Amino acid sequence: MLRNICGTAYRSIFYQRKAYANSSAVLVGKLGFAHSTQPAVDSQGIETNRMSQVANGQTGLLPPPKGLVAPINVPQKLLMGPGPTNVSPRVQQASGLQLIGHMHAETFQIMDEIKAGMQYAFQTKNQWTLVISGPGHLGMEAVLVNLLEPGDKVLIGVNGLWGKRAVDLANRLGASPLALEQEAGKSLSLDEIEQGLSKHKPKVLFLVHSESSTGVMQPLVGVGDLCRKYDCLLVVDTVASLGGVPFFMDDWKIDAVYTGSQKVIGAPPGLAPISFGPRAVEAIKSRKSPVKSYLLNMNELTIQWQCGDPSIPRIYHHTPPVNLFYALREALAELTEEGLENVWKRHAEASARLHAGIRSLGLKLFVQNESDRLPTVTTILVPEGIDWKKVIQYLMEKHKIEIAGGLGPTVGKVFRIGVLGCNATPEKVDRVLQALKEGLEFAKLQGHL
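Above: the chain sequence. Below: its structure as tokens.
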């Protein structure tokens, strides 16, 4: 069939050239130009030669990639970094189910079930609770691009990489970001937050609940009341914490929140659950300028998710990753079946076990204040004289276990170990501690060679 197709293509090219040659000859004869110095075209010979080249694979067509000839091979690894985490067999199986259309009734039912699951995980009754097609980072962009207009003041808590990233995004949107800075390894106090609100009178306060680059968890109780006092919207990043620690969106008066699918929730990466409260919805609907993103425009995306009046028919907005919806739905089903309080308890116990094991190895935690420590992602000071890269490499090559180094302000200073989702178990914690012990001994030995 390829030969026939290519032969047809080349015959078409040949006849186009022949017609052009004939018309040129007529033009030359009429105008009296000299005959062309180009050699005569043996059209039959060219076509025969081209077909021969096609048959012998000599047409300049790129060869098939050799790496794609064999089936895909994905090794088994234990992901004990800050995310993504391993997924359960149930979630993994769901992601491979038969693809159906994104506007099918069955898909809409799955989306509705995801919405209910996320309302449970966020502990909110917000109608505008949905999922964005993209990583957790896109959740950050979504809240900022919908809530901020050019010139709007946004006060951003900065004690790690993700606060700095929010400042960058706000600048790109033409807003006026104001950094409320704290040193890496510490959270912001209520007094510091109130001073910032009182001084700057921002439209939005942005806080990172789970600063995974430093291992800090920002306390949120009382912040919502301060934001009401200063007529400010409260936005919270929970990418590395939601599901692993207590979180109450409505009770804490949080106006917008987002997370990632690949952390505690235990689904593959690629989805960003998000929720907007009534005050945030009103701010979006009353904007003076259009939302500067089509994909992230909540005025339209919420219709596809049917977040408002159920009598309004769903409209096509974009084609989402349906198979990831399957996986997220099942991950939320497991979360619901275990119960939030039980999941919180399991992660707290796993974190405590990890911290005790770290101390038994003679290591020190990076976050000094115990109440500031993020249970789901632990930061450990790299011992003096140890090449942290060699430790991480040893764990991967010897045990197929992933842990991470520092990120942003902690690069070269810490190891980061995550206990997320189905990996928050005593057995997994013990495995990573034993491997870490070996890795440190290996790195220490390498340092003496």
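The longest helix spans residues 2-31.
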